[in-house]
Amino acid sequence: MKDTLKNKLIQKFKLYESSLNGESKSNDFKIKKNAITQFEVLGFPTLKHEDWKYTNLAPINNTDYHINPDKVNIDIYDIEHLFIPNLDVDLIVLINGNFDESLSNIKNNENIEISSLIKAKANNKNLLDINENKHPFVLINKSFVQDGAYIKINKNIRAERPIHIVSISSSNQPILTNTQNYIEIGESSEASIIYSHYGLKSTICLSNNLNKIICNKNSKLEYNNLQIDSENSSQVNFTEVQQEADSIFTDNSLTISGKFIRNDIKNQLLGNNSSSNFNGIYFTNKKDHLDNHSLVEHKVPNCTSNELYKGIIDQRGKVVFNGKVLVHKNAQKTNAYQSNKNIILTDTASINTKPELEIYADDVKCSHGTTTGKLDEEALFYLTQRGINKEYAKAMLMFTFVFEVINKISIYELKKFIEDKIETKLLG
Amino acid sequence: MLKIKNLTAEVEGNVILKGLDFEVNPGEVHAIMGPNGAGKSTLAAVIAGHPNFKITSGSIEYNGKQLLEMEPEDRAREGVFLAFQYPIEIPGVSNANFMKSAINELRKYKGLDPLDSPSFLKMMREKAELVKLDKSFLSRSVNEGFSGGEKKRNEVFQMAMMDPELIFMDETDSGLDIDALKVVADGVNTIQDGKKAFVMITHYQRLLDYIVPDFVHVLADGKIVRSGPKELAQELEKTGYDWIH
User: Fold this and answer.
1) Handedness of CA B173, B177, B183, B186 (dihedral sign)
2) Which CATH number fits domain B2-244: 3.90.1150.10, 1.10.155.10, 3.40.50.300, 3.40.50.10610?
3) What is the pTM of this model?
4) Which of A213, A418, B171, B195 has minimal Cβ neighbours within 10 Å of its Cβ?
5) Binning pLDDT at 50, 70 and 90, where does residue A54 land?
């Protein structure tokens, strides 16, 4: 009988543990051990768990994944389509969870440290712990982390180029990879990051990715979660962010395709006058499943958070949205706005949306709302009355629906890239 | 050009047009007036092919073709144009791109190659000037943030671009001040080449001072109950519609 993923993970860790000598005393191992122990206790959540109510993990638990595969050689031509045209970036390439030096392209810069996570650990870089200790995939990631990117921007630096982390999965058998990216933006610095994962040639894969992001005082970071993945590819992304005073963090979640995607963002506003922006668009069709969960915690006064997710669901696509704003008692003068808007094109498409506000302070401005509807028939008629054929007119309207969010992407070339991909998806 | 016979149409179960007859020949300018709810806008919507309206009897012949068998896109490509009473905003689609798509679809339908960008730009600038819209409007999103007058002028701009044969104007004058009205009327009069047919749906006689009709009709209770020359509009201005019953 096939073993579940949960059991395979526990067995694999036991094997690993027994192969260690002195390393079992290290802090690194303690973190791993605590995580797998916790995972063993909690296991994969069922549909009875509120945070996983609409996202069934049984299929994943029943897939025979090869855990933490080795790197393989891949042809650059196979991944060219993942790069943003005309955009000069610092490029980090991960293959099957392993850092690939030859395909990466990191430019020398004394103020911006970019390396593999393993190298950063070897160089004894000070890495803050990951606070999350309940999310099943974070626990798995903490125990099984392979490699990832380490990005540290010094104080008062405006990074000239975006940093693009490209994570590839390529295998003949189903694989589970565990990557971690550690990103720290120094005081008064600015940077933008793009992250994308792709399963090559219909690889059956589950990319378990964990981001730890620290925005120091007065810093500005735009993180673009670019999800144009292949038909058998699944992703779980957990992004833990902490912001100090006067900082601005923007997460653009851009989901164009992928079989099963679960995104979690947990953002803590720890310093006054900081602001957080979560923007998202999605186009979910076929039988694809997308679950976007986010939590922004206002722990101090005078902070602002904005969340706007807009998407289109077609065929048998299924989308889950859960955006939560938690305002602590002393977080006075908080401004928190949240909105999720959906267009559904078929009777079999579905959206489960839950915006949540949990407010303990009394001098705040908060709002949340969600809409779900069909394409505007009057607008469709207007376009067809000018001779534009129905399919093209629908595509135009769907594009205009998400346009408001796409416009928030600050990297011009990325904006164009996404517009192209959307056009192809809508008309193709 | 247009022959409507015994047209009955309903929306959401309500019968609005009740056996309407109406004919339009090339080059003619018609005005359709009448009380609220009579079916004036419904008539325009039915001609243009709005999907919410159900035709339960009657026929519409347009240039020898059965209009009711044609999709709205094809009616448009055959030269039917509706200037909307409430033009829609389309953020993210520029006026230029909107017209470019429409014009190229039209040309494709006629077996022509798409228009090249410089010719297209020239054409747009010309037509924009016709309705005194600044060429900067071309890069703005369709009707987004436009005043009522600008939206109506955009309708006439699109009319000029599409070069249609049968034009229905649904309460184009509503909400316009006299200056905007003059610009709209000037635009329409410039487009009129003696072969196009215009059907103006209007409440007020004011527009008809500027776009002079050949025929004025009164649509009441879903049918055309009276027709006459342009003087009829002035008469209606004085008498109102009480006389109908």
Assistant:
1) positive
2) 3.40.50.300
3) 0.88
4) B195
5) very high
